Structure formats: structure tokens, C-alpha cells
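Suppose a colleague, Dr. K., hands you the sequence of a protein chain of 179 amino acids and asks what its three-dimensional shape might be. Before reaching for any lab equipment, you can write down a predicted structure in C-alpha cell form. Begin with the sequence itself:
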Amino acid sequence: MLDEKALLEFVEPYYADKDIMHNMWHVELVGRMVEKILSVSNYEVEKECLKLATYFHGFIYRDEERVKQWMRAQNYGEAMIAKTVQVAWESQRSEIPETIEGKILHDAHVLEGGKTYLVVKTLITGSVRGQTLRETMDYMEKNVLDQNKCYLPETIPLCEEMNAFTNRFFADLKTGVQE
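The predicted structure, expressed as C-alpha cells, is then:
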């Protein structure tokens, strides 16, 4: 059974030095979107695996072995560890996730915060990284516009709406700063 206190003690240091769009609040937003997806669907999922992967997704690429060690110390079996790690990785990749939990977490990660959030996140992240607005817009044009994709029938229309909003916003912004 999940020990939430132990989980938070383990993950919080990994998010402590992240920017405001990738810290523990980000994990909360992704988790809320996971719950929203689950509430409008009938998928049979390993909820504990999905919850753990939600918390691990922001640093799995940096410290996968430490995640496995922590899970072993919490008495998780190797099958659960392997699946949790897979799901955490699936939220990060552009390929279609193999597991239903991976698809849910991937899509929740894409849709966190709703249709306007992608623009806000991109602009704030660019600012935090010291980019000028033009540099952030260049990044947005090359790496954000029409780059987000969801895989579940419940999330595809939300993603399409988000992408359309982001494209309109970007076009308006580009026109406004070039005049």
C-alpha cells in the first residue's frame, strides 16, 4: 500500500530546484488531469502505479535507478517497479505509449492546466531560462506549435482545442510584436 508521506519525502527534493512550471505544483496539475481523465473513462488501471509514475515523471530520466531502489525499499515487487518506471517514461516520449496508464499520464501531462496553460507555461519557462520574448517565440514556433498529441478518445478533442488556441495566440502575438 502506498505510503504517501514516504513518497512525498522521496520526491520533493527532486522538484525543489525546478522552475515554477515544473515543480511540485506541476505534479499536482498533472495528477488532477489524470483524475479528470479517469473520471470520464472506464479504463481498468493500476491506480497506484499511475500515481507513483505521476510523481516520478519529472525526474525518471535523471534518476531511474534511485526510483527503483526507493520502490524496492517500500517493498514493491519487480513487476510493479518495471511497470511504474515504464509509465513514467511513457509520459515523456513522443512515441505512442504502450500501457493504458502511460497513455493516461502522457495525455494528462500534455493537457495539464487546460487549453491556455501551454502558452503560459512556454512563456514563463522561457522567461525563467533568461530568454528574450523573441527567443521564446522562436522556440515556441519550432518546438511547441502543433507538437502536442494525445492518444485517448477522451483527450484528443481537448488536445486539438489546445493546439488551435495556441496557434491563434501565437499568430496574434507574432503580428503584434512585429508591427
